[in-house]
Amino acid sequence: MAPSPTFPLPTLGHLGVKDAPPDDLDAIQIVKQWFKTFASSAEHGNVNVITALFLDECYWRDLLALTWDFRTFVGSVKLTQFLNDQLAASQLKAFKLRDDSVQLQKPFPDLAWIQFSFNFEVGNFGLASGIGRLVPQSDGGWKANCMLTNLEDLKNFSEKLGAFRNHEPNHGLWESQRRQEVAFEDAEPTVLVIGGSQNGLEVAARLKMLDVSTLIVEKLPRIGDNWRNRYSALCLHDPIYFAHMPYLPFPPNWPEYTPAAKLANWLEGYADFMELNYWTSTTVTKAEYNKESRTWSVRVVHTNGKERVFKKIKHVIFATGFAASNEPKIPVFPGVENYQGQTLHSSQYKTAEGYANKKIVVIGSSTSGHDIAADFCHHGNDTTMVQRGATYVMSAKNGWLVMGGGLYTEDGPPVEVADRIGASFPYRFLIGGMFQRQVEVMNELDKDLLTGLQKRGFKLSKGRFDAGPTPRVLEDLGGYYIDTGATKLIINGKIKLKNDSLIESFTSTGLKFKDGSELLADVVVFATGYGDFNNIIRKLCDQDVAKTCKPIWGLDEEGELRGCWRDLGVPGLWFMTGGLALSRFYSKRLALQIKAIEEGLLTSRYSLSP
């Protein structure tokens, strides 16, 4: 369950500040003065001076730089303990403020801060960046409310990009070299990635740029098939500005919302353009950890029956996606054995073609439920959505306008900059009031849409903590819909709605509800989500590994995702997941950890209990 809000927003009223800072404020001078003290104190390990620069109600998020983990320290007590433990040992130095990043921002009339970025070094191994925000004080001074410290690169192990690319000409050898590299006939990869969709491809690309030998194993015949084989109506609900992949952004003529089949082809091209090593039509059947050698034995089988057992894999990354990692979550109702129609889970659904003149019932009102109901409706089917609980709905256009904060737009900053700014807002800060305000703004922009749904009887939610979709996404990936067309079909009655009673049982011809009503159905689709991410670990690994492995997905008390891109409690075991944006950003953080382990730089993590 997501952690509850801790502190309210640092509004002017909460801070005891009467007037908002003027637009012509000399923000650069304020930041320079603050930053000079901060940088000097950080280099000399002076914790007391640093904590005096922060509010008591503060947040410091660290991504690997000082902790080799993803941690958020909330409040001055936790911050002080963290700095006492880690500041001197981290040997921070070479702080440099980026003057062009300093900006006075006023997201709401009663909320103002100065945002700035900086670079620094960690000991003799790390190049890092930071983002801070200062808020005004009643005495005219400024203190930090939020801070991000983020490991960017390893000093002596730069990514093979730009000046570090291969500069040697290659006359006629490239094809044979690639065949040899992909075959792994006389060698084993350092890293084996299970799954060849965006998560597997992006982390493999990051590892390749860090010169870590990596092989992707994909069970389907082609890279991209996991998108190619999903329901034909599937289209990304994230705009293209949010969904770029590392090193190879989408071209400028790419549509704003990407059809699944188009994305599938792009992923296939990405794997080849980035020269990633992958085996398709190949399934991992077992992964066993050897405690003595600290390596993995991994058995893979090709569809032609050919088997290969790798004996000395150092790292296994599960990049199996939401659906493949989890078992479908299907509610059990009495009488299903007597039902004469067809039942299927959303993961099994492909297309509405072939269901002409069928009565369709879709159970579930989150994204998949809307998409599938709309697909059946567009094919002329009598379609009913069964809504089991209130759902958060926002339009894609207005949702991204507000929630994106201007970061991911046609004219927004480079995606690498946007990612870091987005990561600099700790979850615990956002649920303290920022998300709630955004929801109110979006609801006003979507007023006509939401009013139309309410008139149809659709049950709307503002989300957990009235904070919109994010808390539910980070808890269980459900409970919301970003509208790309299905909402209008509900409003105009083309998709029927049933939500006035809970399902009691199946009948031979459909569903019976607890109020005695019945619903005829030739086909019942369960758009009811998935189970536990750890299922795939239990399926492929031995019992000791499965028991030791930490929980995957859901938020810890600090507001960080559990088990994703970070230590799982079993050496060399990783879980790479997320949509295109999360995968783009955190794939590098995962790759940096693996490279640091291989080079002997990462030997322990900061273990202060959340």
From TrEMBL:
Molecular-function GO terms, alphabetical: flavin adenine dinucleotide binding; N,N-dimethylaniline monooxygenase activity; NADP binding
InterPro entries: Auxin_biosynth/cation_transpt, FAD/NAD-bd_sf, Flavin_mOase-like
Statement: the UniProt record of this protein carries the keyword tRNA-binding: no
Pfam families for the chain: FMO-like (PF00743)
Keywords of the record: FAD, Flavoprotein, Oxidoreductase
Gene3D superfamilies named in the record: FAD/NAD(P)-binding domain (3.50.50.60)
PANTHER family listed in its UniProt record: FLAVIN-BINDING MONOOXYGENASE-LIKE PROTEIN (AFU_ORTHOLOGUE AFUA_4G09220)
Name used for this protein in its record: FAD/NAD(P)-binding domain-containing protein
Annotated organism of origin: Dendrothele bispora (strain CBS 962.96)
Organism placement in taxonomy: Eukaryota, Fungi, Dikarya, Basidiomycota, Agaricomycotina
